[in-house]
Amino acid sequence: MRIVLVGPPGAGKGTQAAFLAKNLSIPHISTGDLFRANISQGTDLGKQAKAYMDAGNLVPDEVTIGMAKDRMAQPDAENGFLLDGFPRNVSQAEALDVALKADDVKLDAVLDLEVPEDEVVKRIAGRRICRKDSSHVFHVTYSKPKQEGVCDVCGGELYQREDDSEDTVRKRLEVYHTQTEPIIDYYRTQGLVVTISALGKVDEVTERAMDALKGDK
């Protein structure tokens, strides 16, 4: 299957993408991984992306699209892939359609993870990260530490990242609504969109997504 995964920040796209890709035996292709791989390998596209990033500028669509096209052309993606974080806007979606058509393939589904805005804010703004080890993550509601402000694992101080503040989260949501959400309507006209609720336990959402992709909506 060839799937595009969309949803607002905090919808759990990265988590669901990993589980779905494993269940469907297709590679999970995320924008972040594409950038890191190309930059670390020193590819031409990676050098271009790094130059823009070092200058504090957004990486142009054509560079991101080029990376995605190269990755989708790899042998492990021959029978399908799951795109996470790409396309990010309608112009990228249009470019993806052109690229797939050139290879005589098409998308099977666009999986839209739906989460109420207040829940997104609650999920992200409630996160607390350990200063000693950022892999230790807690939540003021869903995964409370035994002692407030103290990491259960190493005793480090727990803090809220600036990116996780409520104001920043709401700004990120505005960007999502303005730039990325329009691709849902774009794909809906092609009959590709499958919308599911991303509320509940991780395995419940995965099961819901698998059922929807199979057509058992």
Automatic annotation (TrEMBL):
A GO biological process of this protein is: AMP salvage
**Record: residues binding ATP:** G10, A11, G12, K13, G14, T15, R127, V137, F138, G200
The UniProt keyword set, sorted, is: ATP-binding, Cytoplasm, Kinase, Nucleotide biosynthesis, Nucleotide-binding, Transferase
Note what the entry says on domains.
Answer: Consists of three domains, a large central CORE domain and two small peripheral domains, NMPbind and LID, which undergo movements during catalysis. The LID domain closes over the site of phosphoryl transfer upon ATP binding. Assembling and dissambling the active center during each catalytic cycle provides an effective means to prevent ATP hydrolysis.
> Broadest EC class?
transferase
Q: Where does the source fall among the domains of life?
A: Bacteria
An example of a GO molecular function for this protein is: AMP kinase activity
Task: Describe its assembly.
Answer: Monomer.
Q: Which InterPro entries match?
A: Adenyl_kin_sub, Adenylat/UMP-CMP_kin, Adenylat_kinase_CS, Adenylate_kinase_lid-dom, P-loop_NTPase
Q: Where in the cell is it found?
A: Cytoplasm
Question: Where is it mostly found?
Answer: cytoplasm
- Binding residues for AMP, per the UniProt record? T31, R36, N57, L58, V59, G85, F86, P87, R88, Q92, R161, R172
Name the EC number(s).
Answer: 2.7.4.3
Into which family does the record put it? Belongs to the adenylate kinase family.
Q: Where is the Adenylate kinase active site lid domain?
A: 127-163
Q: What is this protein called?
A: Adenylate kinase
Q: State the function annotated in the UniProt record.
A: Catalyzes the reversible transfer of the terminal phosphate group between ATP and AMP. Plays an important role in cellular energy homeostasis and in adenine nucleotide metabolism.
Renumbered to this chain, region (NMP) spans: 30-59
Q: Which reaction does it catalyse?
A: AMP + ATP = 2 ADP
Sorted alphabetically, the Gene Ontology cellular component annotations on this record are: cytoplasm
Q: Which pathway, per its entry?
A: Purine metabolism; AMP biosynthesis via salvage pathway; AMP from ADP: step 1/1
